[in-house]
Every structure is written in C-alpha cells, then in structure tokens.
Amino acid sequence: MFGRDDLCYANIIVGWDRFVLALIVIDLSDLAIMEGARMRKDLWENTQLADKAFPFNVFHTRFQEQDFLQLHWHEHFEMILVERGFATLHIGGKPFDAKAGDVFLINSGELHAIYQPGDSFTFYAIVFHPSLIGLQTSDLLETDLVSSYSNGNRAFVNRPDPNDAHFALFLQTLNSLIMEFQLKETGYEQAVKALVRLLFTWSLRWYAMELYPDNQMGAYKQKAARFKDLLRHIEVHYANKITLEQAASIVHLSPYHFCKAFKKMTGLTFVQFVNQYRVQEAEKLLRNTSLSVTEIADRIGCASINGFSKLFKQHRGMSPNKLRTAEQPPR
Predict the structure, then answer these.
(1) What residues does the HTH araC/xylS-type domain cover (predicted)?
(2) Are 43 and 74 in contact (CB under 8 A)?
(3) Which residues of the chain have pLDDT under 70?
C-alpha cells in the first residue's frame, strides 16, 4: 500500500489499453509556436471545442526536454503534425518513437500520451468533433460510416507508413488544412470542412483496420471504460492514499495483472504515473497561487517537504522554489 510519502519516493511496477484520430507530421511552415511548454495538461484541456457550429482547432506546440502530456482521451478526432524533434508517444497501450516526418492517427476515445521529448519537440495538433464531418447529417449511410469510428467499433492505424504510395498526397493535404486555418481567408471554414472530409475519406480507404471482432468488442469497450474510470479516480484522489489493490479493483483485475496492463498502456508504473500527475498539479499551484511550497506539498499528498522537492526536481529538473523564482517578472 502507498501512503502520502510512499507515492513521493516509490517506483513500483504497474500498466493500460487503447482508444481519438490524430496525425503527427514534421517540417511545416514556420507558424507561431506556443511558448513555455511544461506539464502539458493544458493541451488536453484546450481540446474543448467551444464553437458548436465549427468544432475545429489547430494548436502549434513546442515541448522542452522535461515536458510531457499526461495520459488522456477525448471524443474528438485529433491530428498532430510534428515539425521537428523526438518523443515517445503512447497510443492505445503501444509505444511509438516519433520523429520528424512521422504521421500518427489517434482514434476517437483512444487513450494517448506524450513522454520523454527531446529538446524542442514541435508539433501541430488538429482537433475536430465528429459532427464536423457529418455525424449529425441526415445521410444515414454517411452517419453510420463516421459513427463506426467515433464510437470505437473500427479504427485507423496509428502510424501510416511513410513509404506508402498515398502518404505524400495525404501529407500535402494536411499541410493545406493547417494553412487554411492559420490564414483564415474568406470561406476558410468551408475549405477546412472539405479538407477534413477528404482526409477522413482517404483514411477510410487507406488506413482503416478492424479494431476487434464483433464478439470481442463488448469486452474491449468495457475494459477501456474501466481504465478511464481509474484515470478519473486519480484526478480526484491523487492527494490521498491510493493502494495498488484499490486501483486494481477499479479495473476488475488482480494486482499482478493490473501492474502488467497499466505498464503496457502508459509506459509507466502506477506510482510513476500518480507522481507525474502530482507534479503536474504542484506546478499549476506554484505558477498560479501564492501558497507556500510546504502548503503545496501537503495539497498534492507529500507530507515531507524534502520528499516533495526531490520528486519535483526529478520531473522538472529544478526545485519548486527555483521554478517559482524563474516565473516571477523582473523588477
């Protein structure tokens, strides 16, 4: 069992499974880059698409060496185009080494994360709701086609082969989509919708796969839903004592099989994952509140200030005090 301080020190072996449409490419035009990337919970919070009439957005983001994007999911399809650098992407329980020129597809609802980026790992994240490409259309055939991917019954391959005969055309169209949205010239919304539809259609033709046979789909969805319940539990209770047995019971697995599944899904042990989440929340408090470091340590579940400082430095490469000092504007 892990207490408040145990989660600040321990490295116990633990794992996860698959579920959003994303593309990652590298070497696009030099558009404005989001600066100051750190613990990138902001990236999945920003996937909330406020404009119901045009549920689409593009984010251009740069990671530094200590940054990461926590394991998460959303109902939107997502396209990520990476310009440069290296990182490890975990998509549906599989690790991928991402490098310049790669394209990754993440299916709707698919658990995914970004870890271990090199310096200046830069990418575009294109996010859109299924309704943008016809999920709410009156064309029943088209609705069934789109919904089979948005509800997880079918999936796209996570990494199209760059040597594939269609890849160059696919990549060129992605570039056009980004430029249309960035320039926002007259009628760009219609152009964006048309390009997204085209990319989705090509994905159906060239990069579709059966996720699971019909007789296995129910069990797969149930397993994915249980792991998502665990993520929600961690978000709410990360500052409290969490035992391996409690976590395993949420996903209806034995502790042994839970450890293997969690490690497979996330690339991290359960303790590493919870500690990473705690550091993420601590950084938000350091940046956005006047709470003392001792108070923040207590808020995230570390009773020992020394344990908190050690944990924070391990993840961020600097002490909590140094980060807060660096964030203060010069006098």
Answers:
(1) 228-326
(2) no
(3) 1-48, 50, 134-153, 210-221, 327-331
Query: In this structure, are residues 276 and 282 in contact, taking their beta carbons and an 8 Å threshold?
Result: no
Which domains can be identified in the chain, with CATH numbers?
1-15+238-331 (1.10.10.60), 41-210 (2.60.120.10)
Vertex 18 angle, CA 16 and 24, to 5°: 115
How many angstroms separate the CA atoms of 65 and 316, rounded? 9
Per-residue tokens: 109: 């609802």
- The Cα 25–Cα 171 span in angstroms is 8
SS3 content of the chain, % helix, strand, coil (to 5): 45, 15, 40
User: Residue 22's pLDDT is what?
Assistant: 40
CA dist., res. 197 & res. 203, Å (int):
10
Query: Please, which residues have CB within 8 angstroms of residue 326's CB and are 6 or more apart in sequence?
Result: 318
| pLDDT value, residue 53 | 85
pTM: 0.66
What are residue 17's phi and psi, to 5 degrees?
A: -140, -170
Contacts 24+ apart (CB under 8 A), 94-97: 94/18, 94/158, 95/267, 96/158, 96/159
State the DSSP string of 106-130. E-TT--EEEE---TTEEEEEEEE-G
CA distances in angstroms from 114 to 34, 94, 107, 234, listed in the order given: 16, 12, 15, 18
Distance CA 114, CA 109 (A): 16
Chain Cα centroid distance, residue 163: 26
- Residue indicated by tokens 């321990």: 10
Q: Cα dist. 155→29, 41, 76, 112 in Å?
A: 30, 25, 13, 14
Which pLDDT belongs to residue 149? 64
Q: Which amino acid is at 152?
A: G
Is residue 118 a contact partner of residue 125, using CB atoms and an 8 Å limit?
no
